[in-house]
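Submission checklist for the structure archive. All mandatory fields must be present; incomplete records are returned to the submitter.

[x] Identifier: Claudin
[x] Organism: Hucho hucho
[x] Residue count: 238
[x] Sequence attached
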Amino acid sequence: MSNMVTEILAFILTTSGWVLISSTIPSEYWKVSSLDGTVITTATFWSNLWKTCVTDSTGVSNCKDFPSMLALDGYIQACRGLMISAVCLGFFGSVFALVGMKCTKIGGSDQSKARTACIAGVNFILSGLCSLSACSLYAHRITSEFFNPMFVAQKYELGVALFIGWAGSILCILGGVIFCFSIADSSPTSHTGYAYREATSASVSSHPRGHAQPMSQRPPPEYSSSSRVQRFDKNAYV
C-alpha cells in the first residue's frame, strides 16, 4: 500500500513538472530588458525561443518572428532542441508510468510493472535534465552579456519562463528518482521456499548416497506389546 502511494506521489510530481516544462516553450518572457541605470522607460524589450518583441509605454507590443532557423544563434537552437526533447521524453514517461503503476490493471505481473515504472523514471529524469540544461544555457548567455563591460548592446535579465522551466525540471527529476526506487520494493516477499530448499539440499549433501547413518543415530525400534505377543505365539508353534 505504501509503495502504491509513493508511486502516485511520484506520478503527480512528474506530471506537474512535465506540464510546467511544456508551458515554458511557448512562454513569452525568457529574457526581459534590464532597467538598470534608466530613469525613464519608454519601451520594454523581451524575447523567447521563437520571437523578439518590444512593448512601448502605451502597452502596445510589436513582435517579430525569427526569420531563419539556420541563421539563429547556436544557444537558441540548442535550447529549442533540448526543450522539445524534454517534452517528448516526459510524454513517453507518462505513458510508461500509467502502465507501470500498481494502481492500474494493465502491465502484467508486479515485476514487469516495476520495470516499466523504472523506465518511466529514467525518461522523466532525462526530461528534467534536458529542460534544466536548456534553461541554464539560456540563463548563462544572459548573465554573461549582462556582466560583460565590453558588451554595449541592449542587456537583458532573467525572465519568468526560466524559473518555470527550472521548477518543472526539479519536479521531473524528483519524481523520476522515486519511480526508479520503486523497483526495489517489487522483489519476491516470500523467501521461505528458497530457505527450505537450501536446508533440504544441505541435509542431503551431508549424507551422500550409498552411506548409511551410524547405528548410534538410528532411532531405536519400538515394539508394542501386541507385536511381542504375536511374535511369541508364532515361535511357540515352531
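[x] Structure attached
Curator remark: The CA atoms of residues 232 and 238 lie 10 Å apart. Strands lie at 31-33, 43-47, 51-56, 61-65, 156-158.
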